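HUMAN: Now follow C-alpha cell order:
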Amino acid sequence: MSILILTACIIFLILQIAWFKINPFIAFIITSLLAALFLGLPIETISPVLQKGLGEMLGSITLIIVFGTCIGKLAVSSGAAKVIAKTVMNWTGRKYVRLGLMITGFIIGIPLFYSVGFVLLVPLIFSVAHQFKLSKVYLGIPMLASLSVAHGFLPPHPSPMALSSILKADIGLVLIYGIIIAIPTILIAGLWFSTRFKNIKTESDHEILNVEEITNEGKLPSFGLSLFSALFPVFGLTITSLLPLISNNAKLISICKIIGDPSIIMLLSLLLCTYTLGIKMNRSMSSVMDDYTQAIKDVALIVLIVGGAGCLKEVMIVSGVNETIVATLNQVNIHPFLLAWSMAAIIRVCVGSATAAGLMTASVLLPLLKANDLDPNLFVLSVGAGSLMCSHVNDPSFWMFKEYFNISLKDTFKSWTVMESLVSVLGIVFIFILNALIH
C-alpha cells in the first residue's frame, strides 16, 4: 500500500509540473506534504520532517552550486570563455573544426550552466558555419552534446551535485568517472552522429545570434589563465581524490580530505577566479560582485528545487516506505543501474527537466543502493544518464535548439532529440563497461 501511495504521489508530482505548470519547488513541497499525510506520519511531525529534509539537502550542496555559478558567470563576463573557445578553434582549424567545437563545449560546459553555455556558444557555432559555409546543425551537435554530458554527468552542475549528496557518493570520483564516460559518449553522440546533418537547412539567421555577455572593460585573460581558472575546481577535486588512493601518508590524506571537501575547493576556486579573472584584469571589486549577485539570483530557483526534493526524500525515510521499496525492488530481476537509468528516463520524458528527473529517481532508489552495496559514484552517473533521455516538446532546451537554429520541428526531433537519447543510452552502456573494469 505504501508503494502505491508513493507512486500516486510521484505521478501527481509529474502532473503538477508537466500539466498544471506549477513551479517545481512548490510541486515538491505539496507532494511531500501529501505523501507524509497519506503515509501516516503524525500531523505534528510533518513540518519538522519537511524542514529537516530541506535543511539537510541545502546544507550539503548550496555552497557548491552557488560558488560554481559565480565562477561560470565570471568566466563569461571576463571573456575567459570566449578566449578558450577562440584558442581551441584556432588550434583545430577547418579540417577538425567539429572536434574543436566539441572540445570547447566540454571545457566551457564544466563551469557553466547549460543554458548559459548554450547562449554563449551558439553565436560561435554560427560564426564558424558562416566562415566555412557549413551546416549549423552539423557543427552544433558535437558542441551541444558536450554541454549536455557535462550538465548530466559532471559536478559542480546541480543535478550531479545533488545526486552525489543524496546517494552519499564521492564527488571527486563522480567527476573522474564522469569524464571517463563522457569522452567516448560525446565522440559518438556528437562527432559521429552529426555527420548525417551536413546538408540540413536552416531558414534564416536571427539577430539574437549576436549575443555578447562580456562586460570586462580591461584586458582579456590569456588562454592558460582562462583555462586554469575555469577548470581549477576540476583539477582540485581530481587531485585530492586521487592522492589518497596512491599514497599511504596519513598527513597527506588528512590534508586532501580537508582541502578536497567540495565546498572548500569551490570557495578556493572562487577566490582564485575573483583575482585572476577579475582584479588582475583591471576590473573593480564592485563590478565582480555585481556578476556574483546576478549569478546567485539566476541559481536561486534551482537550489530551492533541489531542497524540495530533499523534503520528499526525508518523508520516505521517516515513513519507512524506503524499506518497503528495497524489499520489492530486490525481487525485480534487473540490474539496479539499469533500473535507475530506466526510472530517470521515464520521469524525464514525462517532466522534461533533467534535474527534476534525477532528483525524483534518487529519492526513490536510495534504499536500493544501500541494500545492494553498489558503487554510489556509478549509481549517480546511471541516474544522470537516464535523466538526459529523449528531450522533446516539454523540455525548454528542445525549443531553444529549434528556435536558435531555426529548423523545422521534424528536423529538431531528428537531430536534437536523437542526440540527447544517444547520450543517455551510450552513458549507461559505458557505465556498465566501467563498472566491469573497476569491480
